[in-house]
Design a protein that fits this description.
With 321 residues, this protein is α/β, with parallel strands linked by helices. Among the domains are: 107 residues, no CATH class; 93 residues, Alpha-Beta Complex (Lambda Exonuclease, Chain A), CATH 3.90.320. It is built from ten helices and seven strands. It has a four-stranded mixed sheet, with helices on both faces. Strands 1-3-2 form a three-stranded mixed sheet. A hairpin with a 2-residue loop joins strand 2 and strand 3. The longest helix has 30 residues.
Length: 321
Amino acid sequence: MGQLKNTFSWSFSAAEDFEQCRRRRYWSKYGMWGGWARNATEEQKTAYRLNKMDNRWGLMGQAAENAIMWVLKQHQQGMPVDADAAWKTIARPFMTKKWNESTEGNWRSAPKQFCCLRGHYYKTLGGEEEKEAKRQLAAQIQNCISNFIGKVLPRIGAIKPNQEFQIATPEQGGDVEHFIYEGVKIYSIPDYAYRMGDEVHIHDWKAGKIKADQHKLQLSLYALWAIVKHGASLDKIFLYVEYLNEGQVLPFQITEEQLEETKALMSDSVGEMTEYLVDHDREKNEPLPKDEWELAIDPASCGQCNFLELCKPELDALGGV
């Protein structure tokens, strides 16, 4: 097996990290690289471990998505299930398993294999607050499942497995869904996509808050994915943001002008990231020294960052978070 190469790549989440804090992007892309190896430095190992950390809202979204996709598959097989069954069979065991992994601490030796929640790691979640958080998450997940069954499933329940796109997700292992655009590897992972004749329909599940502008921009990248990787025509691409907790859907299409705006945003972001590489060489993809990657402009945001531990000495020297 050849040595893994840290390839230059771009995604909306990477671009968001880079905009909010250059140093966060350094840790998540470069500082953590090789941290799984026995001969890694302590800094690399710590960055790798922190990069695998999750938060309770992300866990909630995963649980809801796992449950609704199980509901859909059961429906496709002629075995419809209700929300209670989906919660008890899929979502609750998932949440229990991940929560227990986090509190038991097995992630210390195997961060890729076991869940570590940021609230547990940084001791910002515990006692009665933790109990209430778990109750709130459970209620929201169950509400998302109910809304999916009542409001989304009737719209997509007739879709057959052979119409669905096979999308590589992190849970499957290996490289996740991506496409190459202007020589750059672009990560793009739609939640659910299928064909109806020459049409492509792409759905994105949202278990959290409504952020229409941000989410429409995210789905515009999925449209580009469908065009580049699957030869879809822009006017035949239909996009849906499914706000499961609210039971609302935001259906839309994008214009050529909007697609060009997305491409320009992506190009500008790639260009800015390239400035933080030695000799601006994306093929080599060697980062400038860590200190060249600036800390967040707003130190208050550091309290919500996985990499706080690594930046804390520097932040303390500057007056603290």
